[in-house]
Protein 1
Amino acid sequence: MVSLGCPKALVDSERILTRLRAEGYAISPDYAGADAVIVNTCGFLDSAKAESLDAIGEALTQNGRVIVTGCLGAEPDYITGAHPKVLAVTGPHQYEQVLDAVHAAVPPDPDPFVDLLPATGVSLTPRHYSYLKISEGCDHKCKFCIIPDMRGRLASRPVAAVKREAEKLVAAGVKELLVISQDTSAYGTDWKGRESKFPILDLSTELSKLGAWVRLHYVYPYPHVRDLIPLMADPSNGLLPYLDIPFQHAHPDTLKRMARPAAASRTLDEIAAWRRDCPDITLRSTFIVGYPGETEEEFQTLLDWMDEAQLDRVGCFQYENVEGARSNALPDHVPEEVKEERWHRFMEKAQAISEAKLAAKVGQRMTVLVDEIDEDGATCRTMADAPEIDGNLFIDEGVEGLSPGDFVEVEVDEASEYDLWGKRLG
């Protein structure tokens, strides 16, 4: 299995592999030992499409028997036009079709006495944290995004199913649940006749009681998000004071051209209210620079907004056309060299904010989660750090007896632009 793209695609890969393991298939760590290769693709940006095509080509060269699935699978002609020898192409979360393709390529030969599946299924992440997908699809119509075309409208999983999966993961030793979807705060709003107006509040409350860290990703800043903040401020439960919110821009005209809510000033008020009710909250976001029509004035507004918002964790992308996106047809596309220059200015601003915020943590005591142990010490994460996208806290000495998945108390004694160092307490 070659899995590309976002954590949501990773969850799809885990589900496919779990089903295959249950049917008696073994998973090969390399091309040479495999009877077939599944490539789970990403199709969000043209650069991601190119990476997916390269991965398919590599699998064909190294193995020759390739089944393609995932977001780019929504465009089968695009794939077969470049690689006509693939065995099959299926779209995103089409698990049954993937299994049918595998059955055709490599007929199953299960042995129930040998092929015992672990209760939690197959995980592609370390054993102590796991992604928990709560819905598929999205009802937004952002002009730069084709995810609703690929993955459909919002379809939320039942609360009982999500909670059951979460309980099994925690029982198997998972210490952190990373809640993901295309629009987490809209979870359950697609259900007709629902008892709760905003089911994400009830689900978060239930997950917070399981004894693990719970981290929310892809949260749109709807007004009801403020009702999550008191839960995050309560240290007795597991819902971390952390919000991953895709703001994308701050100038109202840019947001309007993106077809996104254009209330950047009210967003600053919301951020202030969140921090008032939960002073330890960590805010992460992503932004796009060089969107079609973005003027220097609009970009400067974004920089000024960043000065006010003081976000803790920030990512930034240079706009690029995506086949099928409505933003391609917008006038006044920004020259590549201007996008590059704005990206550097934005990241310089974000880095300075991050450096100052982390420097202020020196001397603080906190609980961290150990991710990895090696000869240099322990690589850990604080409550403010999601795996793979945020920073780390490093312990250079005194790590004897620690293992991945352990919680440990530290005192921060050094900071850089994105990472912390600490000494173990007790």
Protein 2
Amino acid sequence: MRMFGGGSSIGLLPVAYINDATGGYNTALYIFSGLVGITFVISLVMKQNIRSFERQSIQAN
């Protein structure tokens, strides 16, 4: 019996499925590149919100 960790179920198995379905890795790489871009934008928005909350708490004191 073979056990898979969290990383392989998040990354390797979907990539293998996409490779089988499309015959190549290009689609999987485009999907993961898009996800990295989305997480980058989310992190920038979160950073901006944190700074805004910090400014509000400083002004409230």
Protein 3
Amino acid sequence: MSALLFELLVPQPAGGPGSARRDRVADAVAVTVAAAYGAAMVPLGDATKPGATIPWQLDVAIGAVCVLGLLARRRRPLAVALALLPFGAVSVMATGAVTIALFTVAIRYRGAVVAWLGVANVATAAGYFLLQHDPAFPLWVDLLLRSVVTVAAVGWGLFVQAYRRLTRSLRDHAARLEAEQHLRVEQARLTERTRIAREMHDVLAHRLSLISLHAGALEVRTDAGPHETAAAAGAIRTSAHAALQELRTVVGALRQGTASRPEPPQPGLGDLPELLGTARASGMTVGYACHVPVDGPAVLLGRTVYRCVQEALTNARKHAPGAPVEVRIDGGPGGDLRVTVTNPCTATGRPAIPGAGLGLVGLRERVALAGGRVEHGTDGGTFRLQAWLPWPA
């Protein structure tokens, strides 16, 4: 019953679903409760006693008007309470309406305002007592009864106000958490797509530079025999097929979402001989010296080393075709895992392989995410790319 009264008596914020119907029901319940309380107090108080200041019929009429005044409590609760308070000094029937008006004010205004109204309501009990010619009860009884009712109404109203603030705070907190969760999900998706785009650049740039290298060789070697031409065409076909396969995989992952399929295994330190073998098969001269165990570094560290060497080979193929490349990997746990790739700077008459110029930028970002650093530049006619990656002990 108290829960039902709580839902019906408390004025709810307008605009919600079913708010108009709920408001009408709440007003009807408030008027009914106020009228019932006032009607119960009429025979219990001094209204029907011979010494009453006004006839009980007039008392009931005044109380009925006050009860109807509660219909305006939703729009102007403080004004309604101030207007009804004086009637508590002349009409017992009006005390029910005054109590409901105080309750409404208590759920919307600060405690100081509500306290002053409560004191004024208790003071009207003393005024009602003084207006009676022959009171049936002593003054302290009227004061006690009015105080208990006032404290109950004000306390309940303040509790509702606190409850509203708490629920509003929890609702806002839940909304913020939901928004933050959506933001984290979007950030994770963006990060994953950035990673996929970086992988696509690394792989496709390597494959397409091989295609360009073989096509350039066919263009320059006009005297090549059928066997050499067929070998170059086969290498172009294989590289193009691998590039298309990688592109199809990346585009499919972007369309369907990375969570819908398992991530394919990424190359690592143990896959470097295969990468270098592919480069040698395309005509590059590549020297390789690895002074660390293949299964020594962590998976992420080995993958970063692989991408460093892959980007270095791609740049060498673009800017110094035909020049020998030296790859050296050394270091140890507790220090740095060092990657050094060098090649002579040579100028050729071939057209340069086009590129976005962002490969080294992406490589620097990848190494930085692993906690390392990258340096590259020309020194005495030799281009050198070096990367230092922290290798935990």
Protein 4
Amino acid sequence: MNSLRGAVPFAGDRYFRLSTNALVRYQDAAGETLLDAMAALEQSPGDTRRIRRMVWAALSHEGLTEEAAGDLMDEIGQTEAARLLGEAIRAAFPQAGAQTGETGGNGASRKKRIP
């Protein structure tokens, strides 16, 4: 099990993780932020190129190419890849889940709200 903050384990020692470096890699490759990509997917949920690039970013610590990330998506299935990516996004942006009432992440960056 991986103890890195925001890591979402799968297939043994492998994990999805949207660290700061992964977010920058995504932005450099895509020309948009991951938050922009998430918003765009709401309008076009079948954008496979964008989804594959997001999965690639979450696995970029492994040094995979985008094509290899697509091959992994084929191996584990689109549904499982989307689930893991969603968990990684919630772990990377726990404040967004707190605002919408969703749970996710490890809560390490959350602060108690005083009413």
